[in-house]
Amino acid sequence: MTSEKTAGPPMADPDGVQKIRERIIRLAREIEEFSQQNVSEEIFFREFLQRVVSAVGARAGAVWMLNDKHQIHLMCDQGLQEIGFQDNPSALGQNQRLLTEALQNGQARTYSPDEPADGDLPTNDLVIVAALQQQKKSVGVVEIFQRAETPKPARAGYLQFVEQMCGYACRFLDRLGSEQDSDKRTNFAGEIESYLLQLHRSLNVQEVIGTAANDGRLLLECDRLSVAVQHGVKVVVKAISGQDAVNQRSNLVRLMTNMCKKVMAMREPFIYSGKIERLAPQIEKPLADYIQESGSRMVMVVPLLEPEPAMKEDDEVQERKRKAKPRRVIGGLIVEQVSESQPRPGLEQRVEVLADHVATALHNAQVHQGLFLQPLLALLGRIFGWFRGRNLWKAAAAAVVIAGAGVALAIVPYDYRVEGEGQLMPVVQKNVFCKIDGEVIEILVESGQEVTAGQELLHLKNDELNQQWELAVSDLAEKKQLFATVQAQLDEAETRAAIDEIRQLTGKMYEAQIQITSAQKQIEILEERREYLTVRSPIDGVVATFQIEQKLGGRPVRRGEVLLEIMDDTSDWRLELEIPDNRIGHILSGQEKLATANLPVEFVLATDPETRYDGKLIRLAGRTETAQEEGNVVEAFVEIDSQELPEQRIGAEVTAKISCGDRALGYVLFGDVIEFCQKFFWL
């Protein structure tokens, strides 16, 4: 006993994919051929449903039709009993909702049990519904029950296939109508009028070809309509029906472009209806490649020729020009049918009518967009058009207001002020420098602590210096011991009255005395340097350095390095500002204009921006420095009345404005723009 398993072909097996594709195409062709036979609706839809369910590998399917009383009934089904449709009491009501939506919308869609927005479904399957239309009226619904575990990317393909097969069924139903041909001619006349209105309403090339492709496909009732545009010898497919954008690097578009280029070079319409025999060699290979890629059974390529001038000349002159220079090819229409190999009745005549109008609309749009400075001219046209009627008086009033504002900006004087940022600092401040290399071993003060002049701040350690001092002390002791020994020998020689020995020992004693004096001076120098290991405050004040322990604790320091900042907060206070280097010229000009170096200053504290205080500029630094954020800056010092300040906090941030005399109001407001232009557009 054997069991049969149903599974999709592995994507890595090209042969399996090709076999499935060929089977689907074969079933689609069978449905197409069967739709052209004279059989009853029951027989057609039974065979139709069997092939559709087999092609997509669905679990079940059904065809529902409207009767004379506009009530929907089941015409035929396949596998409904096996999937438990009839065992569910609420299935019929839930299914009625899906059928009603399909009849009302006239569109195909899928309903998935894993999508909450789709509501309750009659079964736990993926449901595909597509409306059946007769003379553009919904008369039935094809319903396919596919497996719920179907991957989401594959659902769109199933939906597209079912919708395409329903198209054959709709054509079968249309053939049953006795007034089909007359109704089509009437509908085409009304539809083409609307189509032409949409086609000629725009002079934008992309909008024209987009309308030609998408609306033209509905008018021609083909499966796909594409528009190619020719620029010189280059052909580009610009629009494909149903697509928002055209990927020029895709295989389909590249092969379509190559085929269209060869056909357009012939300047004659071309139709492929299933046979490639007896075709020109230059067309046969590109056409075969494209048919293999697209799967189309009918392809029609119609070149779009440049329209003739509206004002015709004499017949003789016109004929001479026509022979001398034929009309230029500006594009082409590519009409495709996937299901039928023969053009549908009247398709060639409709394409011929559409091609002339599309060529005219495309040529007009190309001429319009090809005008020199067309966007600028269109903008100017809209601008000047706005000035008609009452808008002219409005524009005149606005011009007067703008002119008045311009005059005011040019002649009204206003105080020009240079802005700078800085800090509030005491006037008396000292940096505590390291006088000797060493290592910080003890910190005796804290940030913000009050100190007096000479008070110990830090203790340093220098092992090398201590070693030198100990060696110097030991050397001094040796020299003193040597001196004492020579002194004793001299006393003994004097007792013995040894003149030569006395003379010799006296010299040694003087030499020892000199060495003792030198050693004592060396010790004094080393002791003085050891005093530097104790860092003392140079003035009375407050320790202004922040986070002393983190910066100096256990850290080696070198001679000349700033260790601490001591500031006398009881003395006068001042502002230390950083002025951008490109603003110093205004300050110097203001000092010259006002005949004083002490320009007035207005400033605010960052902690109290609502209160303004006054001061005066007392000094500018003689050199430019580089700041981390502002770039090149010049330091400025401002004298203030510290008694006016609510609080005096070292390093408080301030924003100050230095008055530099009157300038034109326009320069005060837009000076940065003027200076930018002067700097970058100076000739």
| Weakly predicted, low-confidence segments | 1-12
> Mind summarizing the main beta sheet?
6 strands, antiparallel, barrel
Whole-number mean pLDDT: 83
CATH topology of the largest domain: Beta-Lactamase
**CATH class descriptor of the largest domain:** Alpha Beta
Structural class: alpha+beta
Q: Largest beta sheet: what is the strand line-up?
A: 11-20-24-22-21-25
- What is the distance, rounded to the nearest whole angstrom, between the alpha carbons of the first and last residues? 98 Å
Q: Using the CA coordinates, give the radius of gyration.
A: 51 Å
Could you walk me through the main structural features you see in this protein, from its secondary elements to its overall organization?
With 683 residues, this protein is α+β, with helices and mostly antiparallel strands. It folds into four domains: 14-177, GAF domain (Beta-Lactamase), CATH 3.30.450; 182-308 and 326-369, GAF domain (Beta-Lactamase); 433-557, Orthogonal Bundle (Helix Hairpins); 572-680, Efflux pump adaptor protein, beta barrel domain (Elongation Factor Tu (Ef-tu), domain 3, Beta Barrel). The protein is elongated. The model is unreliable at 1-12 (pLDDT under 50). The two termini are 98 Å apart. It has a six-stranded antiparallel barrel. It is 46% helix and 25% strand.
Which helices and strands occur, and which strands form pairs?
Blueprint: H1 14-35, H2 41-56, E1 60-66, E2 72-78, H3 91-105, E3 109-111, E4 126-134, E5 137-146, H4 152-176, H5 180-200, H6 205-220, E6 224-231, E7 234-240, H7 251-266, E8 270-272, H8 281-294, E9 298-305, H9 315-324, E10 329-337, H10 347-369, H11 374-386, H12 390-411, E11 413-426, E12 429-433, E13 438-443, E14 450-451, E15 456-461, H13 463-496, H14 499-531, E16 534-536, E17 541-543, H15 548-552, E18 556-557, E19 562-567, E20 573-580, H16 584-594, E21 600-605, E22 608-620, E23 625-627, E24 631-640, E25 652-664, H17 665-680
Antiparallel strand pairs: 1-2, 1-5, 3-4, 4-5, 6-7, 6-10, 8-9, 9-10, 11-20, 11-25, 12-19, 13-15, 13-18, 14-17, 15-16, 17-19, 20-24, 21-22, 21-25, 22-24, 23-24
